[in-house]
Backbone:
């Protein structure tokens, strides 16, 4: 389980949800050309931020599950106010990288300090942000390791979560402590400012994605409120930078009001109700998951493909776009007389949570194929291919895989 967790954390660096953080680390690594000592300190602080965050998240999951809550990996993104807060974080990071304002050391930094060799706080909080943004993804090897951890005593479970974090931080640890790798990095220079500004755009795109998730969670009113809050936040940061030489009272006079307006949007979003599952649009090729419907289909002797997904799960969306929305998949459903059921875990759903617990899954995506003859269901890997899905459905229908 520890080996699987280490490999899963390593592969997590390649998953779509972690790519924005690589923008921050790209700047940090470019800066590491200052000295070997700086590179090592930066790598250690980043690793510490990742490990602390994975440890806290793991303990939170274990504690809440012990208290009866049906929570899993990425549970914090089921809270609309937290998603809205991440939108603000991504916007602030992007505006800083674009040069609208400077994240001085008083704000803790997030890996953006390009002129000084004191990036400990910045590297640490970049590690924290890496854990937060990575949590919607489930990489290969991760699912089994996390499922094992949930069923173990706290000490063993915590070791699995920490090893997962170590895998995520491992590439940057190697660059920091292996001089041969560090020497391959380009030397710092004026080009870094251009790179910093260019890497702001992944931050903005991540904010757009999170805003889309929020709209699906609480509707257009919530998304609109957070958009207005984004404008207030941008104005507050702009004013704060423009008045850098002014007294603190003068800087707070206007900026404080704008920050309060941005915070009020979070309060508004937290009070909105989630749309019912039936009100969410669904594709013509699938039905909403329902345990009774699944039992009825099994009674009819039909193969069933169950997809447990969430809007904040980037891996889920990649699989749906490349495999489950394709014409080949729809034709496969027809040729095998299969039914496609889709469960939505964007917001907490007791039926989806019960299904995840049944198969000892700690999060989404989860893909399960139920054979027509009622035999043991088959759990598919978290990264789908057309071939894997076709073989599973044809076997479930009693057909010879092509």
Residues:
């Amino acid at each position: 389980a520890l080996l699987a967790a280490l490999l899963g954390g390593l592969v997590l660096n390649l998953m779509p949800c972690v790519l924005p953080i690589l923008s921050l680390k790209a700047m940090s690594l470019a800066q590491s050309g200052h000295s070997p000592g700086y590179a090592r300190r930066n790598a250690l602080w980043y690793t510490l931020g990742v490990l602390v965050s994975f440890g806290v998240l793991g303990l939170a999951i274990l504690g809440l599950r012990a208290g009866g809550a049906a929570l899993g990996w990425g549970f914090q993104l089921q809270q609309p106010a937290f998603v809205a807060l991440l939108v603000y974080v991504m916007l602030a990071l992007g505006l800083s990288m674009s040069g609208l304002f400077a994240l001085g050391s008083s704000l803790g930094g997030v890996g953006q300090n390009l002129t000084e060799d004191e990036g400990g706080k910045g590297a640490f909080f970049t590690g924290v942000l890496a854990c937060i943004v990575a949590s919607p993804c489930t990489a290969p090897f991760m699912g089994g390791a996390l499922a094992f951890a949930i069923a173990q005593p706290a000490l063993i479970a915590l070791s699995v979560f920490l090893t997962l974090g170590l895998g995520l931080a491992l590439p940057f640890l190697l660059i920091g402590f292996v001089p041969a790798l560090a020497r391959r990095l380009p030397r710092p220079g004026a080009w870094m400012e251009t790179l910093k500004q260019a890497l702001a755009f992944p931050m903005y795109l991540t904010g757009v994605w999170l805003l889309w998730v929020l709209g699906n969670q609480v509707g257009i009113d919530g998304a609109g409120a957070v958009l207005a809050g984004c404008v207030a936040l941008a104005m507050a940061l702009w004013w704060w930078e423009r008045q850098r030489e002014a007294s603190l009272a003068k800087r707070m006079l206007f900026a404080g009001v704008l920050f309060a307006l941005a915070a009020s949007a979070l309060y508004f979003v937290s009070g909105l109700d989630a749309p019912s599952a039936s009100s969410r649009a669904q594709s013509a090729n699938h039905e909403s998951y329902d345990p009774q419907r699944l039992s009825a289909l099994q009674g009819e002797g039909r193969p069933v493909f169950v997809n447990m997904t969430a809007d904040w799960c980037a891996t889920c969306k990649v699989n749906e776009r490349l495999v489950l929305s394709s014409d080949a998949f729809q034709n496969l459903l027809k040729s095998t007389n299969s039914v496609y059921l889709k469960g939505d875990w964007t917001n907490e759903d007791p039926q989806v949570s019960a299904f995840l617990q049944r198969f000892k899954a700690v999060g989404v995506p989860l893909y399960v194929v139920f054979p027509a003859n009622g035999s043991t269901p088959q759990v598919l890997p978290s990264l789908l291919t057309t071939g894997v899905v076709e073989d599973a459905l044809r076997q479930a229908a009693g057909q010879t895989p092509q």
Notes: Confidence is low (pLDDT under 50) at residues 104-118. The chain has 17 helices and five strands. The first helix runs from residue 2 to 12.
